[in-house]
Structures are given as C-alpha cells and as structure tokens.
Recover the amino acids of this structure.
C-alpha cells in the first residue's frame, strides 16, 4: 500500500477532500449563501458558521438566531466611523465601500457555484462539521480565491472609481534544502535527512468592510546529508576498469547490490546511491506537505474579521490568527507535517528506497559485469 | 461576537470516516484528557493505516482563549526515526479510540496556577483505504472545543492515567 503516494496533488483528478474545521468556516460561508438562495431554516445555522464568515452572512436576511450577529456586522465600526486614512488602506477603500458586496469581475457574487460546490446535505448540525469540497479547486470557488493561479485579483470599486490590488500570497511552500545537520551521523548512518516544521505567516489587508488575509510566508526547511561510511570505497567506472582481480570485482558487485537492498556492505558503495535514498525522503516529505499547505491556505484565506475589529493590518492579522478556525487549520497542517515526516522515516514503502538506490548502482553493476567478461572471469 | 461553538465531530465525506472528540474533565472541571474516536460510518469496510506512536497519529494543540499556544507541536522525526505502521480494518459502525492525557502533550507546570480558559484542538491523521480501492488516501480530521478550561489539578489527574494509549 503506497502510503506516501496516497495524497494526490491538489487540483488533480485524484485530489482528495480533506476534513478541516477551517473548512467548516468555508462550509459556513456556503451555508449562508444557501440560506440566502434557498431559505434554509435558522435551526440549521450552527454557531461556528456565523463566527468567522460574517462577510457573506452580512447581507440583511433576518432570522431570529442570527439577528444579533447581523446587527453587529451591519453596525458601523466601533472606532473611526468616518474611515480616515488607514495604514493598510491608504486609498480609503475600506471606508468607501458601502457594503460587503464588492463588484469583482474575477469573483462572481452570485452564489450559484458555491452552492454547487458543497451540497446542502453537508450542512453541519450544531456540533458536527461535515466538511466537503475542501480540495483546492473547490475551495477557490467557495472562498472566491484564485488559489490555483495565486495571481492577485483586481477588484473594481465603482464607487471609488479605481482599482486596487490585493497583496499577493504564496502559492506553495518555498523549500530550502541544505546540508546543515543539527546532529552528527551515527556510526552506521550513510545519510540523514532532518525535516523541520514550515514557517507560516499571514498578511492582512482591508477589503470593503472586512479584513481579509493571504498566507504570505510558507518556508519549508530540510537538512540532508549523505556520506560514505568510514572505510568504504567509492565505486567508480575508473576503479572498475582498473581492477584486474575477478574476486574483487565480484565483491564490488555484491556489495553494491546488498547495500542497495539495505543489507550489509562488503566495503564498496556509491555516494550517489546514498544521496538518491536521502533525496527520496525529501521528496516524500514535500509531497506530504504540499496538499496540506493547499488546504491550510484555502481555509485560512477564507477567514475574515469585520473592519471595525482591528486598527491596522498587523492588528487584523493577530486577530485572525486568534480565531479558532485559524488554529484548527494550523493544527491540521502540523498534523500533516508530523505524518509526512513519520511516513518517510518509517521507510514505507521500503521498495521505493531500494529502487532509488538500484537506479544508481545497477548501471555500475553492469559495468562490473562487463569488466569481468572482458577479463574472462569464471 | 458570540462565542465560537465546539466542533466535536468531523467527517471525511469521501471515505465515511468520522472523528469524534470527547473532552474528559478532571475533578475540578479542567481538561484531563482527550478521547478521540474514529468511526466507520460508511456501509463498507475501511482499512486504516496509522503509526504506532500516538504522538504521530493524534496531534493536540492547547491555546488560551486568544489563540496563544500553550504547547508546541512535537519535533518531526528524521529519516532515522523508524517507526511502525499498523493496519486495522473497521467494519461499518465500528471504531478505534485514542486516549490522550493532556499532560502527555504539555508539562503540567506550563499551565498557570490559576484556572485558565482555553481551547483544545485535536487532529487525527491516518491513511484510509476502501476495500475495493487500490490506494489509500490521507484523511485528516480536526475537532476542537474552544470553550474549555485548563487546570493543573485536572492535568495532573490525566497524568496519572499514563501516556497516550491507542487501539
């Protein structure tokens, strides 16, 4: 069972749907628009839906259970009601937007695609977040975020008569792979790969009546280093072709094969094979983190807070990060990191690692075989 | 703003795997442990593959009410970490449970002496395969209770229950 290959890249036809409370917020956004379109009873509206998706719910459709929340959202900001210069909004767009509805050619305001993305059958009960449509493509639709392209969306603001540009977030984890191991090799370790947790951060920006955000930092770090064990000879074509002893050549070939299969060596190996093994760890880890980051990004970038709840962008980012849905998304991402590192550390499937090393040593074994043939070895 | 509601269940609609979080209180009402159940709500068998180390399978994050973490995610394994994977097949309606004392994921002394209102987040990460599907898929289920309280007394009670257990 190829565990490490089990998560398909986001956007592919095999892309998975992940279950995240962050998605509960997105599902909540869907619920709100469903409410507007189809008149879902207020009894279906769970509290977490209302909490962090107020911008979508803010269209004044009244239901008893949400009325208080709508009042809050519709009310003018507690401070700075006239909307003077805002450090994160020098053009004053936040102050000039009359409502949460922004005319956006790139993001249709009609709820139809949202409703399609998550069927109403997935509406959560009060304590149940049934999460659906949380792969990258679906989420991009739900949240109105072009996560796949990661291109800035230009919002036209008719009342202001100008366009502005959202901050550009990161579309994927930026990886740094170096050889700065934080511990020494063990006596029998050919190579070591240390996977570190990804550094994440968001940048908030004001858009209309709310503070939105983009994931602005996603820095992954892996330390990896390979070596020849002390006393082991590196096998090269030159070494093979200079060797005249049939027994030595036989021992070289056996050592290459056995070491590639994870068995004891006979004093010969190839550094490139060790590197191939360690590189596979790096590849596995990155592959495990990639879809988790897409899910994290989609969930987090769907989070907003009302404009009046923060005094500037830094304050807004802090308050967005204080939302339970943010921590939930972060916890899920950390869990994915933990699993990805543990999966590859378990060397499952073992065949993948042997295959990677054999891809390096097998041609050399062929060279050894040819040399033995030329020497007419028995 | 109204208090955020707990999300004590999460379901993966593709596989039908459901996660359920029970927050187990100690004598003084603080969090002693989290009990996490994953249940097969599909109408067919599901094969779960998970690590034998509960620290890998179940991630716990503890924060105060403003989202400030009180614990940190555990260090990631390096390539020499090894580890064992377990396979369990769940027939419809059956489940697996993990019991995670809160003290297993943070030192009791990291809690303030006074009662601390906080939030508890729990994620289960595993691979799931249907009987008729060739490849497993990774399923991550996150549940949380944003309205818990942490006390040293209850955390110590959980510590008496030992380390995290798993099925």
């Amino acid at each position: 069972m190829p565990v490490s290959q089990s998560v398909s890249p986001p956007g592919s036809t095999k892309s998975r749907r992940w279950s995240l409370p962050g998605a509960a917020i997105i599902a909540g956004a869907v619920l709100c628009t469903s409410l507007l379109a189809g008149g879902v009873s207020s009894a279906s509206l769970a509290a977490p839906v209302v909490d962090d998706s107020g911008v979508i719910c803010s269209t004044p459709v009244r239901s008893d259970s949400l009325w208080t929340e709508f009042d809050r959202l519709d009310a003018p900001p507690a401070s700075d009601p006239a909307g003077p210069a805002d450090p994160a909004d020098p053009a004053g767009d936040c102050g000039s937007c009359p409502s949460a509805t922004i005319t956006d050619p790139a993001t249709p305001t009609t709820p139809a695609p949202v409703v399609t993305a998550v069927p109403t059958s997935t509406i959560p009960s009060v304590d149940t977040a049934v999460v659906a449509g949380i792969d990258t493509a679906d989420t991009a639709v739900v949240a109105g975020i072009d996560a796949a392209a990661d291109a800035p969306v230009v919002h036209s603001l008719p009342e202001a008569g100008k366009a502005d540009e959202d901050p550009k977030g990161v579309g994927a984890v930026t990886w740094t792979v170096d050889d700065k191991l934080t511990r020494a090799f063990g006596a029998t370790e050919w190579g070591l790969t240390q996977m570190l947790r990804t550094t994440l951060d968001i940048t908030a920006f004001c858009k209309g009546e709310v503070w939105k955000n983009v994931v602005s930092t996603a820095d992954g770090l892996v330390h990896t280093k390979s070596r020849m064990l002390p006393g082991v000879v590196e096998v090269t074509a030159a070494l093979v072709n200079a060797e005249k002893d049939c027994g030595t050549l036989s021992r070289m070939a056996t050592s290459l094969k056995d070491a590639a299969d994870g068995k004891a060596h006979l004093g010969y190996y190839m550094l490139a094979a060790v590197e191939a093994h360690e590189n596979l760890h790096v590849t596995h880890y990155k592959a495990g983190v990639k879809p988790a980051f897409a899910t994290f990004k989609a969930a987090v970038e769907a989070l907003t807070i009302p404009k009046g709840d923060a005094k500037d962008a830094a304050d807004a980012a802090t308050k967005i990060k204080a939302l339970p849905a943010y921590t939930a998304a972060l916890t899920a991402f950390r869990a994915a990191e933990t699993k990805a590192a543990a999966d590859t550390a378990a060397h499952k499937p073992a065949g993948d690692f042997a295959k990677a090393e054999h891809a390096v040593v097998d041609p050399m074994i062929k060279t050894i075989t040819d040399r033995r043939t030329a020497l007419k070895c028995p | 703003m109204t208090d955020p509601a707990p999300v004590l269940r999460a379901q993966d609609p593709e596989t039908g795997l459901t996660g359920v979080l029970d927050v187990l209180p100690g004598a003084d009402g603080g969090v002693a442990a989290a009990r996490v159940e994953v249940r097969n709500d599909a109408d067919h068998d599901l094969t779960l593959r998970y690590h034998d180390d509960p620290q890998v399978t179940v991630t716990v994050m503890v924060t105060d009410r403003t989202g400030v973490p009180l614990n940190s995610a555990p260090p990631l394994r390096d390539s020499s970490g090894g580890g064992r994977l377990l396979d369990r097949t769940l027939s419809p309606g059956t489940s697996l449970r993990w019991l995670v004392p809160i003290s297993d994921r943070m030192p009791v002394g990291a809690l303030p002496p006074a009662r601390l209102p906080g939030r508890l987040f729990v994620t289960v990460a595993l691979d799931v395969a249907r009987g008729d599907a060739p490849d497993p898929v990774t399923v991550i289920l996150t549940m949380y209770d944003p309205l818990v309280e942490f006390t040293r007394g209850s955390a110590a009670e959980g510590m008496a229950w030992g380390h995290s257990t798993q099925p």
